Every structure is written in C-alpha cells, then in structure tokens.
Amino acid sequence: MNILFATTEAVPFCKTGGLGDVCGSLPRELAKLGHQPTLILPAFRQVFESGLRLEPTEVVFQVPIGQKRVQGQFLRSQLPGTDIPVYFVEQSDYYDRPALYDEGGEEYRDNCERFTFFCRAVLEAIVNLDLGTDLLHCHDWCTGLIPAYLKTLYNDRSPFDQIASVYTIHNLAYQGNFWHWDMVLTGIDWKYFNWRQMEFYGNLNFMKTGISFADTVSTVSPTYAQEIMRPPLSCGLEGSLQHRREDLFGILNGADYNDWNPATDAFLGENRYDAGNFETGKAACKAALQEELGLPINADVPLLAAVGRLADQKGFDLIARVMQQWVNQSDSQWAILGTGDPKYHRVLGQMAAENPQKMAVRLEFSNELAHRIEAGADMFLMPSQYEPCGLNQLYSLKYGTVPIVRSTGGLADTVVNTTPDSIADGTATGFAFGEYTSLALSEAIARACELYDDKPKWQQLIRTGMQQDWSWRRSAGQYVELYERTCAKAQQEVLS
Ligand code: ADP
User: Is the C-beta atom of 345 inside 6 A of ligand 1?
Assistant: First the structure.
C-alpha cells in the first residue's frame, strides 16, 4: 500500500515532541512490512538546520489562500538509511522561522494560514509529484483540513476520489482553534462550518475537522482512546468523538530501538549495557551523568530524572514541589531537562541555583543529554495530567530506569505498578499512582526509594523492564490492519 504521511514533525528532520519520533519511525516499520510510505512536511528552518541533504524537485505550485494565490515548491530527501522519500513544502514566509508553532509561549498569529497552505500543498504534491497515494495518514491538528479537502474541494477529481484517510490524534489539547473568518482562507464552503463538522463554539477548529471528515480516526494508546470520549480529556470534543466511536482506534506508539537502546547508544561511549550486564554499565553511566551535570559522584543516592516539554500537562508543578521536599528531607539527586513554559524555566532554574549539590536543571533541548539521562538516572518521573501515549517511559524501561508514572493514557497501558503480587509474579516494571497531587507522587517516590534499598528486588524490577518489547513492530502491524480497514470503508462509500 502506498501511504502518504502528512505531518509537521519527523525525526531526524524536525521535532518538538513524540509526534516527531512516531513519524520518523513508523514509516520504517511499514516499509519492512512491504508497504511504500512517503512523508511530506513543511520545510521549517529546523529542517535546513538538520544538515540532512535536501534536493530541489523543480516542482512549483500555487494555491489560493483567501484572496491571495500563494506559491510554494517541493524539496526532496529520504529518511536516512532507507529509500523512503520525504518531501518538504518550501514557503519561506510561512516556515523559515525560529520555531515550528510558537515562540516564547505565543503561537504564531498566522498559524491558520500557515497550515491551511500546508494542507493544500499536500494535495498538490499528490498530483504534481505523482505520488500514487492510496491512503493519507494525517497527524494532529496541523493536518486536520486534509481529510476535509479530500471530501469537499477535491472530491470530484481523480486521484483524490480514490484516496482514503486516517487521522491520528497525538494530543487532543492542541486543536488549532481560529476565529470564524479564517474559514475564508481555506476555500471550503461555509456550509461545512456547522457544529458537526468544522465549527466549534463559533470558531474554526482544525482538530474537529480532521475527526469529522477522516475515514477513520486513531489515537496513540487504547486508554487515551477511552479517556477522550468524555470530559475533561475530551477537551470539548466528546460529541465529535462519540459520533465517530465506531471508527476510533487506539494504537500504542512504539519505541525506536535503533535510536533508543543502551546496548548500541553512541551517546553512552564505552558505558553501553544490556539486560545481561546492566549493573556495571548503568553504574558507569550514572557516574558519568553526575559528573556531566556537576552533581557529586555517588553511586548510593537515588538519582531521579525528568525530561520533557515544560508544560502543565507533564506535571512539572508536582515535580517542582516534591523535588524541593525530597531535597530538604533526603539524600537524593535530581536531573531535569526541558524547555517550554517560562514559568517553569523560572521556578526550576531558581531551585537548581539554590541547591547545586542535589539538583541539576538544564533548560534546553538536547537529544544527547536526554539519552544520557535515560541511561544514568535510577528513576524517571512522568506525573502527567494526561498522556496520550508517552515515549519517555518506554525509553526508561529499555534503559533500566524505573518509571514513576501517573496512571493515565499510554502510561497506564505500558507500566505495571509494583505491588506485592506483581513483584512476586515478576511482572512489575515501575510505580504508578492515581490522584494528580504532589502527595500521591511523593508516596510513589517513597515506595520506589524503599525498593531501591532492596537491591535484589530493585534489580529484578530493572531486568523485567528492560526485557519488555515496546518496539514499533507490534504497533506497525496494527496500523496496517487499520489502513486496510480504512481503504475498505472508503471503497464502500464510493460505491454506495
Ligand atoms: P510529547 O510528545 O507530549 O512531548 P512524548 O513522551 O511522547 O511527549 O515524547 C517526548 C519526546 O521528546 C521524547 O523523545 C523526549 O526525549 C523528547 N524531549 C522532550 N523534551 C526534550 C528536551 N528538552 N531535550 C531532549 N529531548 C526532549
């Protein structure tokens, strides 16, 4: 099957979060299964800065955006190490900017226009580059208009009338909600601006549009698929999602073990390790990390870590609170890596400055350091308010860094809480708690620290985690089933 991934992120070209990991990995697995994936993304500045080779295609196109006609052109590259084509939509006024979506906490004011253009460019690419697409796999709000274009402006033309669409929700909280006059930019008839399709409390909503028009909808874990059916995690879209209940699927993301594997990780130098010899390898990684972060080198104190977007969603308010308590009351070390909301930059930066012997906070995006933290830490915190899937807990399991998670979304689907029973039957892989409170997080950390002092049990926990297989192989098979089901459904609709 010829599958076109329309996305705004794909590793190693550009990434702000898990979406980039998914779109850089899933196509590789689909290719291994005999399918022909292709990717298309905006040519953001990050893409040029990635240092990867981009070639011009000489294909220039124009589309109407409101009253204007806007020109763009396509560049071509490949997913490194494969022959999977990756196309980029070059339009420097829209995409040659310091960030992808926002700067300093402020969204770009013309985001509706920027991503309307991208959605139309994807459809132009299908014909102008002769991509032979059978199915369009669209990701998150930025691509939400594509399924609508397929069913409206472009539906009476070949090849569009034959193309099926899957729309995947990676995070329902980011919806692309714009004032109603932006409908004019899309060129789509006002009759679709109604509460069942594109309109959301008087605004134009890209996420709702994708959910309403795609042949099938998926999200990135079975638990999140259930959670988004009702408030609060439905973020107001429970009506749309319940309407699509029969066509909504939850498929867990996988981890890319080519990138995230302590046995082969180039960022670990000589300290690589696997499930068979992790005791020495992990100890060496911990010492190296302590040195790199300027923390005292000490094998015995637990080193707790968190890596991620500094957003409310990720529970950094809870982390900041418990970190201060634990540092005051115990011998523990803390490593935080993240960028995002300025309020967390302020609070975390100040705490680290006041506690340099126990806390290291790096307010930056560093893939290398993220790898070394996964390897060198003892415990990894993910007290998320919600978590569609989450990748860091999968990496943590693989690196023998025990995850402490709030039981929500993909965290609930992938981490087995430590209880006397799960320790006894050898299934425990981490610590989970329910209430979104600093007390509940602190209790989970206390349980973890207690087991940390019981070395045989702690090592069993690490070993069980490292032996889990959360690779893309399993999930890619489920996506193929979804693609087949989607094509069959689209075909049936064409015939009826
Ligand atoms: P989300 O997509 O909600 O941000 P995920 O857990 O699905 O969360 O994916 C986050 C990805 O981004 C992981 O690969 C994580 O290591 C990476 N990441 C997030 N923040 C940083 C950072 N500051 N430096 C390096 N990597 C980061």
Answer: no
